[in-house]
Structure formats: C-alpha cells, structure tokens
Design goal:
This is KIB1-4 beta-propeller domain-containing protein. The protein is mostly beta strands. Helices cover 10% and strands 35% of the residues.
C-alpha cells in the first residue's frame, strides 16, 4: 500500500496536479465502495485514521479511469484511542458490513505476532462537534458474521446461525520487514506466511489455524472467494451441456 498510486488523472497531467490528489499521510488501506456515507468511490484510509474519497468520472472512455474529485474527511475516535504498549504496532483495514463502513485495527507485538483486534464503525456527525467519528464496537454487536482481512480486499461474510465474530487474518509482516520490496529476485525475499489465523473477538483468543508454510515467492497471500453453491451448480451444468 505504500506505493499505491490511483489512476486519478490523465497520464500526461503535470506532476504538481498529481501530488494534489495524493494523500499527505501514509496509506493503510484502499477499497472501492458502491454505497456509503460519502457516496460511491475509492475510500483511502490513512495512518491517522482519516479518509480520502476519490470519486470516478462518469464520462470516462472505455478502459479509462480518472477521478473527478478527491475529498478528505477527518475522523475522530470515540472513545479516544489509547497509546499502545511499547513494542506494539498497528495495521488498519477497511471493510463494509451490512451497509456500514468498518475499520478493523490490528495490534501486533514487538515480535510481529498478532495479539488482538478492535473494530470501529464510521458514525454520522452529531452535535455538538458535528464531526465524523470511529465508534468502537463490542463483540455482542458483531454477531452472525465473519471478517476476512487483507489490504484492498477485506470482506464481511454473513453466517447462517448465531455465532460470535471471528476475524480471519493473513501474514502482514511484510509491511514491517520489507518483504517483497527488494529489487533482487523475489525468491530471495519471499512474502511470509507465519502470522495467519483466526481471532475470536469475544476473548481476543488467537488461533493459528491456517497453513503457515510455504512463503510466497511472487506476491502477498490473499483471499480467494468461491461463488455461492448455486452459482457453482449452474456453472457446472453449463459446462456439461
């Protein structure tokens, strides 16, 4: 995410105009939302937990994607965040769930192992401050769903039976140790797959239930979601015709 540059303008646009469209703070996550409190567009989350929303042009030519505008929203924490303990670092993800925009904060120890998660919901401005805020959610308000985390492609999946929230996560230590950023062949600096698993939000228990080897030598690990069983059945029927 540190090197992500959205195709906001024409390729021959002067550099100074490009810079005006970019975030001034490091980017934590970026995701496209069809509907939300800020409308349709690319939502970019910064390390200050602010949001930038890039609105695509509606009159672009085929295979062309440019941005008509970008707007920054300063979002506060409710309650205000406490400083992490020494040695901890944070990763943040955007995910849409039941029409609401959520921010999931990942706590990582000094050994770069995941230790806990917090989930926040973007709430509408209220008096007296009239500012947007991230409201921390309790585990009992997040039942009957599971969240799968990865920058740019996090999703919330509805469960068919009452179940406490489980958060599934992949190894993001490449964000901290530089994996995948070397100019040498990728095989010499693979993307790790050690810190991956599931967190039950009820008691913040971590279960490393996912495969931990081998590391990827070409790209970070991502989630691949199969279509629903009905769609798979229709696809199989079409192939057999």
């Amino acid at each position: 995410m540190d090197y992500w540059t959205p195709p906001m303008l024409k390729w021959d646009t002067p550099v100074n105009k490009w810079k005006k469209m970019l975030s001034k703070d490091p980017i934590e996550d970026a995701k496209y939302f069809l509907a939300g409190p800020f409308g349709k567009g690319f939502h970019v989350l910064t390390n200050k937990e602010d949001l930038l929303v890039y609105t695509p042009n509606t009159n672009d030519k085929r295979r062309e994607l440019t941005m008509s505008s970008v707007k920054t929203y300063h979002v506060r924490r409710n309650p205000r965040p406490t400083m992490p303990e020494p040695g901890e670092v944070l990763a943040r993800y955007l995910v849409e769930s039941r029409g609401k925009l959520l921010m999931v904060v990942r706590f990582v120890s000094s050994e770069k192992a995941t230790v806990a998660f917090d989930v926040f919901r973007l709430d509408q401005p209220q008096p007296p401050s009239w500012s947007w805020n991230w409201k921390k959610l309790t585990f009992d308000t997040l039942v009957d769903r599971s969240i799968f985390l990865k920058q740019g492609c996090s999703v919330s999946v509805e469960m068919r039976c009452p179940f406490p929230l489980n958060i599934y996560f992949l190894d993001d230590s490449a964000r901290f140790d530089g994996a995948g950023t070397s100019q040498t062949p990728q095989i010499e600096n693979p993307f790790p797959c050690r810190d991956a698993g599931r967190c039950c939000l009820v008691d913040q228990s971590i279960d490393h239930c996912l495969p931990r080897e081998p590391p990827s030598d070409c790209s970070p690990w991502v989630w691949f979601f199969l279509p629903e069983s009905g769609a798979m059945h229709r696809s199989s029927a079409m192939e057999s015709v």
